[in-house]
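Long-time lurker, finally posting.

We've been working with Metallophosphoesterase family protein (Cohnella rhizosphaerae) and I want a structural starting point before designing mutants. I don't trust myself to interpret raw outputs, so I'm hoping someone here can both generate the structure tokens and explain anything notable. Sequence follows.
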Amino acid sequence: MPGIEAVSPAPDAVLTSELDKFEVRIADAPAGTDAMSGIDPDAIALLVDGQDLTAQAAYSEETKLLTLPASLISSGYHEVVVTAKDKAGNPARLSYAFTEDAGERLVMSAPAEAVSNELYEVTVSLAGDRTSQSSKISLQYDPGTLAVERIVSKNGTTATGTSDADGVLQFDVNGIQASGELATVQFRVSPDAVLGRGESFKLVKMRAGTLASDAATRSSLAQPIRYTIAFPYLLAVEGVGLNSTSTFKVTSRDGAPFAGADIYLRGVLEQMAVVKLSAQASVYEDDDTSEPVVATLPAGTRLYGTPEADDGWFEVMLPDGATTGYVEETSVDAASIVPLNLSLGQTDEKGELKTNLTTLALGTYKAQAVVGSKNSAAMSFEVVEPYGNRNPEYVQTYVTKDLSSQLSVGWTTSPMAATNYIQYAKAADWAKGASGPDASKVTTVEAESATQVLSELENGPKGEIRFNTALIGGLSESTAYKYRVGSEGAWSDWYDYATADAKTSTPVSFVFVTDSHVKADNGKETYQSLIRNALDTYPDTQFLMHGGDAVDVGGAFAEWKRLWEAASSYATFLPTAATLGNHDVKAEGKEVFVKGASLPDNGPDAYKEYAYSYDVDDAHFVVLNSEGTKAQMALQAEWLRKDLDGNDKKWTIAMFHRPVYHTEAGRGGSRRGR
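Top reply, 14 upvotes:
Generated this for you. Predicted structure of Metallophosphoesterase family protein:
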């Protein structure tokens, strides 16, 4: 089999002086049991910048080198294609590029990002000592992304040209008087511009270029421009559980919330409307009452359907997103029909728009933020099944920066339970035999919350859960409290909690556990037995530290629920400090960790709650994340130095998942933690 290798210049080389030799090695190589037949010199072909230079090249069977006189290669960017066959007819092909960054040549420059619906400027310049008076240039671009608005002459030149529907711009530059900018092509970026599937960038490519002087005309190509698509606004959505309220969030490119952006649906929903049933109605398979009934729905049900009735029928989509049917026009409240081809509304001062129009059926849909003639990318979002219940589940307490005056609680609810609270009171205000405390002594605080989409089982269908967290401060030390979480009509039980004392003389007592992997057989029971024995043996335990790998697959919600069930015997009264393990971070595991737990937020900027510290009596605890990137490790190291500089405690204890030095084969380099 023939093999082809670029020798000089190497692929992607940038030469700072004139090319002194052009060599490509073409040699036969054994392939399996086939004998080598040798290279067929007559089957070698060489293209440079699309020009066939085979006749000017020479191949030596002795050195196996294909050579070309360097004088035939001008300054600038070059694309090379070499093809060859062995004498048995087996083909080979090599394509590569290099740049001779010396001498008089054309170059192009442009921003790395083309912003939707804005101008994108590509400037063509002359580099090196000028000898040319004019230039002819042909550019290839994606006409679905860019449209030529005009060509701007620079430095006294005259630039004129034409473009076609295939994305080819040809223009002449005359009157070149000096090196430097010759002309700038101003493209208008399409508002629908997007990178295609598998694309990481787009190109503006110089297909042809010449430089002409009184003495000669020669070819010169500039290196292609690579660019990505950017947008003046960014759109995100939270709340995609079926029948939940969605919050669309718009920010400018610098991350600031943007008020006044219109939110539009795109694609399939843009052609539909929200219709509301005015009475109980049958949904028929077709527009005839003799057809089979696919569903019977109560009055008040909202569905996606056609904006108008057709011959007395609305076609509708059922909540499963897969079944369509027909309801009679008389069953629809005509006054409440909401066409979805109009703006859903504008974002407020927080850059947010809340709506209940976008989650009426399972499926993948698109939305876009629009501000005048500018817009965000058309964002896809998937409406999924909601997880959880209105009633709080999996109530957990967490360590705080000061356990003598703070209480941190987290719990889950259905995405539809949008507003949750924590209520608390001193246990002393709870009358003996009463079912609750004196109402006047109860404090109510609204919780923070965030939704998360993840699979119930690894790689399975996704659903959405709401994580709620609350941090209460200003508590009295060494004091018993009662608390509950939830909302009106959906409260949890009242739980007991006691703050620590603030005396540095008090012995610190905690339980350390790691790698619980509760997915394993009897994992839940084993974990509960382990913790029960620890607390029975050490009844003065103040908190628990978990060293990571709490679950086996971080992206499987069922495993997190199993962990929380296993922790239910202590989690409501014994706070936990936790760090991430390599199993926990799989898929959406990191988001579950950050959104579901309410840990101290005193860690490194942009990395809070992954790393943090807290004090208990005369001990300082530091929790680090061993699952970060090198950059994140550097952030942690810088933060750790500052944290320890301010530490005046007698004892300092650090927790992280991976050991600094590995002794087990297959665990990677031993210098990971340095």
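Before you design anything, note these points.
The radius of gyration is 34 Å.
The chain is about 5% helix and 40% strand.
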